Batch of 2 targets.
Target 1
Amino acid sequence: MFKGLAAKVYELSGENVYLCYQCGMCSGSCPLVSVMDIPPNQVIRMIQLNMEEVLDSKTIWICASCYNCTIRCPRGLDPAKIINALRNIKMRKGISVVNLRKIPKVEEYPQLALVAASRKLMG
Amino acid sequence: MDKCKRKSNIYNVLYDASLTVIDVQSDDVRIGVYVCHCGGNISNVVDVEEVRKFAEKIPGVVIARDHEHVCSEAGQKMILDDIKKFKLNRVVIAACSPKFHEPTFMKLLKEAGVNPYLLEMANIREQDSWVHADNPKGATEKAKDQVAMAIAKAKLNEALEIKEIPIGNRVLVIGGGIAGIQAALDLADSGCEVYLVEREPTIGGRMAQLSYTFPTDDCSLCILSPKMADVYNHPNIKLFTYSEIENIEGYVGNYRVTIRVKPRYVDMDRCDACGSCAEVCPVEVPDEFDWGLRMRKAIYVPHAMAVPYKYLIDGEHCLYLNEGECWLCALVCLPGAINFKDTEKKVTITVDAIIVATGYDLFDATTLENYGYGKYANVIIAPQLERLVMPTGPTSGKVVRLSDGKIAKKIAFIQCVGSRDEQINRIDCSRVCCMYAIKQAMILKRQDITRDVYIFYIDIRAFGKGFEEYYMRAQEMGIHFIRGKVAEIIEDPITKNVIVRAEDTLTGKFIEMEFDLVVLSVGLVPSKGSEELAKKLRITVGPGGFFLEAHPKYRPVDTLREGIFICGCAQGPKDIADTVAQASAAAGRALRLISQRKITLEPIKAFIKTDLCDGCGICIEKCPLGAILAENNTVTINEAICNGCGSCIPYCPKNAIDLRHYTEEQLIAEIKAALESKKPNEIRVIAFFDDSCTYKAADLAGTSRIQYTDKMRIIRVPSSSRLTPRIILSAFRYGADGVFIGDCLPGGSPYHPKVLDVINDLIRKTRRMLRKYRIDTRRIRFDTIAVDTAERLAKNLNELVAIAERLGPVKPEKREKIKF
């Protein structure tokens, strides 16, 4: 049905990004939007336009999966899931954001943070 | 009304009572068959002489002739003479599509004194010679079968009686907003007897609450109140305010309506509206008219322009009615109009047609917690702003912060509150919010040009006449448009300012802005009680909760129940101009019905075989129109309501319900005739085409000369929902190798929107039975076909035949096992 990035996202998340009508509700609701380089609504726009550079954005790693966008999206989309799919695409290429071995004094970090990091940020 | 002329369509000629019908139906069937050459259109492909000779030999056929043009005057005279000479009581014409000349020949039969329903036509042009032009042999074989099928059906045709219902000119209009007012006035001016029922104590509806109207900026009440007065003074309008519809029964021309008139506790004839009662009344409650922005007394008039301008007591809040103490209003009322003993009254009227104009309610913004309406004082809904900007309103036209009464300087509008939102199940655009927000923004700017006005929108929809110019003027005035749906609103607990958070999607920047006042542009939802009213009226409600029209394009104000029309926001959100246009349209449709003075009922209706019916009542639930009734354990069909869709038939466990003119017996006879000529190893498919879509598409395939398989035989049915598993199984029993079923696209059927569900149920059931007989279920194919998709129809038919050919003929021993 879809091609390119949209097809991959659909495969991984089951979400049809073409439903987005760019109201910006997700970005307005996002608690971390101020530190993102691309606001979530533009992330979805870039998937629609098959712009692969979205995979190199900081946004997809900053998203905390708080699901504020998901509960408010007026088109019933799940932006958090879509961003998760982008992370998966990236990680399937073997690219991880965090390498546990390179973290200095890893033993001093809380267990929970490490588990969360290995789930979300490592392939 | 007397000037209204009766519409002279073919049916009026057919049903004209001055022509007497001699019923020549008897056990002795005498059929005349006429095969048309159609000036070569048929005879160049089909061997007409062979067909004629074939027909001659069929038992019951008295005479078979062919003619160059059967529809010509000479051809018609030939039939007329034959009917007299040979005492024919059935006529079969093999010619073009019945869509062309069926009315012509029915009229001919009528003139000859034969019941027009004893005519049967075989479509050997559009569905034979034109689609098998390169296969004369196959076309001739098919034509012979088609004639045999028509004869088989004609033998079982019954003389059907055409009934008439007299139609008077009484119309009930439900709802006294601008839609109801317009429809009532149009009808009353045309001489109809109109009953206008309004739930509130005054007519005028939502429009009376508006300040000004876009895009012309007329004062709303200034243009509305003359119309309200016209309604009140019109000799042909009987007005029921503060009344609700209790019950509706009956059918077109005879709707019996019970109206519940709520007690006003004030004698309308005596009250002179002096207002001294309200002065002394000690009870204060929020005024509904001003959306709670000011208080009213328990004895009140809804507003200064109310019609009727009479006081009433709010029974819920009156001290005397609730606690037995007070009586102050009665003491000061000089005319003695107060009547605490007033009770609810029930009035029953009989009307011929009904117009539903129940309007809309506003989306309840308190359900959206992130916007804080109802929680923060300075977040209001747009209808409240309508009242605030009015010079006669609660603040004398000053737009103030509700927290402290200070003039609001910086104001934001938030669009699409309760519209275009999947999360709250309101997907539709409410169509008016963009324009009313722009209007209100301009009013605010006009009051004080230094005000900062922001509109947060997703898309600005300025689609109407003069709307884009209006939008442009707003931009000219320096109103800020920000493209982004507001995510959340919070309140500064000290200043009570409201902070709006959104994304400006055009720059990709997050915005957090502080405002004095935030206005929510709330969407339109169906008016309270719509669903119950729909149940009482037996009309359908669409996905958004608004009443559903019979056809979105061609019958936009009709419902599936004859004589019930819808208009205004009851049908869907729309602005005043569209509402008025639609209200006049509904009045026009009602007048069309009324001016016919009587309506003729097509006799093709469902009927109950009383000897088989056990009164289980499944059909009663299945009838989409409520035409089936149960009385003392017997089930009866109201022929005035039944539209002949046949959706009840597949559900009857006793096969006790059937459709006139297309009975199970007749369809099985056609099937048998279609398969009689089949050779042992030949493949043959039976196709059931619904009359309104697939049959027309098949005719179009003919006129477009699309060539397709000659292996199938078409049986015409009013709607495929009329079929039963028995009929489909009998096709396999008597030799079919496949069955094709066609019906309209979703929503395309003229009968009712759920036709496809019925067909799907029916096919599922049939497939289950086929599995039992070990017959491949791929042999049944169901397709929805639009009238204009002839090529698709041809392709799908070819595909089914190809499947049947691949699977080979059904084995005779399997066929014999089929029981029904």
Target 2
Amino acid sequence: MRILFEKRQSISHRAIITVPIVSFLVALLLGAVLLLASGADPIKTYAAMAKGTFGSMYSFSETLVKAIPLMLTGLGVSIAFRMRFWNIGAEGQFVWGAIAASGTALFLNEYIPSWLLLPSVIMAGVIAGAIWAGIPAILKAYIGVDETLTTLMLNYVAILFAQYLYYGPWRDPEGYGFPGTALFPESAWLPRLFGRAHFGLIFAIIAAIILWFIFLRTRWGFELKIIGENQTAAKYLGIKIARNIVLALFLSGGLSGLAGAAEVAGVSRRLQTGLALGYGYTAIIVAWMAQLRSIPVLFVAILLGALIVGGDQVQMVMNLPSSVGLVLQGLLLFPMLAGSLFTEYRLRLIRPERENSQIDAKVES
Amino acid sequence: MNNQRQHTVLEMRGITKRFPGVVANDHIDLELQEGEVLALLGENGAGKSTLMNVLIGLYRQDEGEIYLRGERVEIHSPSDSANLGIGMVHQNFKLVRTMTVAENIILGLKDLPFVPNIREISEKIRSLSERYHLKVDPLAYIWQLSVGEQQRVEILKLIYRGAQILILDEPTAVLTPQESTELEGILKILTSEGKSAIFITHKMDEVMVFSDRVLVLQKGKLIALRSTSGTSPQELARLMVGRDVLFRLEKEPCQPGDVVLEVRNVKISDDRGLPALKDISLKIRGGEILGIAGVAGNGQGHLAEVVTGLKRPQEGQIILNGHDVTRSSSLEMIRSGVSYIPADRIGMGTVENMAVADNLVMKGYRKEPISIKGILNPKQITEFAQRMINLFRITTPTPATRIKFLSGGNIQKTILAREIDACNGLLVAVYPSRGLDVGATESVRKMLLAQRQQGRAVLLISEDLDELTSISDRISIMFDGRIMGTISSDEAEDEMLGLMMAGIPYEQLPSENAS
């Protein structure tokens, strides 16, 4: 018997759905082995995780709090990745979104009418994120600077600058020395839907639908697809590559900036320590697991958000380290990468009899 | 090196290699003598590389045998061929830029100790490089070396590993004239030591300089075997481009209209700064096909890119329908009705991972009703694609099939459909029927003639003399970035085309040819 991998003539939609689900189950199995080795009962652990993440409206809202920034950054990253632009700077774009939103909320509230303050806060975040992604995009598109380095390095600049702000000039003088700014004025708060789950969820859903539409039905999306697949062809077809890369990265960074703005305006309501938790990096896993498709990003983000919250839960309930969630997150990637083969390829088993008969036929002819 | 006692070191007998839809090698015989340089001459797609890939084990032949010093050998992988003393210098060097020459040479050797003695190895390399005049510092990093030096490293690598048969794939394509002369000397020394070389090329002058014998391939078939001293560049040119007349196309008399394209004194340099087009001027009228003949690499590609706006000339003017378009972008050229069928169908002409329908609409998607205000209309796209598929007889399972699963002929028909539909004035076609089977070739040529009938100007760049003489009205012959002469296709004769393709201007042709 011979196993043959055959390239599919068109992408299998069934595989797109089943691969992430099967990968998740495989990751749970691998995680179970690890849990057993460390002396914990995997079933009880998983049950605790599930209960802590989806067990009640409150716990689900906490899962969403983690999932919302993952959705928005995941969408942002997937646009860039579709263009083969390896934007690993979503973290920095997220942090800049938070900084710009905070600055607007804290220092411009006197100049902006209160009904306009929240929209200004959000827009400031979007623009700051877009600019932060635009810098490496322009460097790459016009002078060919490698984007993996620039986007990664700019993360540190953003994170450290945010720290400087809330430890230094922006620190709340009445904050008893806690590293963080003062609370935003109430007119800059992003409304909450239930629990702590905030309006950012609506932004993410709208953004996903818009992106889906852009890539499915617009001329611009069509051009982006061509650039992502074959730049030589794009150039030959008269598509302006550099301009499109920069525009797409503005959108990519803008979404991460939106995530940052929603995070400070919706959750902490101030710029404070514990902002940069690595959403921008987890976003890379989200984007790949969703195969760079916008609607699936939403669901994958909820799943990974649940792993973060679930990790905290097992720490509290089972006395296990909270990194269990992170370990599962890591374990997810392996079956996922292996499984993505099946969306492009089909497995065919060839029985030896048939092969022989083919050879015989050849000889006869 | 015409030794009296000749030893055959390598023999390939009846090598046949088929790819879907194409016979890349059709019962080819090759014999290589000890100490000789055998040139393998043929246009792109003639099957030279396939034959050599069979020899080094990258492909497995469907039929035929390989004998090494009289013994039959089976070559399944490049390591098999390396063990048998056969090595190849690829066109794109396989060197690690951040490692030294010595490290690159021993990279991948199996019988190395865990910690190789670099000094000892360097000494061995140094003595080899002196012996063969392959001047290179074993401790230099690859990125520090010029292209010519890198090529020497590749040759050294093969010699270090004990190769007796060296295959050089278009080795001069990347070299300066001085470096080419040095390579000539290196080959002389190698062959005087009893090593043999196979030299892949599509340039006749190189055959004359480097080789002892020459094997001419054409469309996968062995056309001729000549001793270099007994042939001429002209004969080789004629053998290479071939004259097997497949069919005759009915051609209406030419009814030229206004001048559509005028190129005036255009000059351009290639990526390395060497002149690629040296003062090119030409005119094409509506309803006329101007053929550009010439061996590949004489500036034809640059000419196509200059008139389609993909490259800007450094000097000169391009006039389209009376307007100066020298500074126009490719998008502006597309908008003014210039269509382009590129030589590289897969890499440039199509996006292989996208659907046939998407590929068909890649020029028309900017126009109504396929898109309105930036929004695509999927129904219109499908209808358009279906119409093109029927009109141009593209064989595809569905319009949604990814184009890479189509045959070469159908991929080309897809490009033609898209370009002809978008064309309004000038159609530039580069090697439009290369590698296609007889049927597809015929339909491609008919489509070009139909464009001429509709009053469009066609610039046809081809290596196929049969194609040029059968469908073009006039033929310009390019050599080394210049036009050697322009003749009416009725008066075109092989001999005279061959002479001009070998670099002799029309005015200097011997009078019996120029009559």
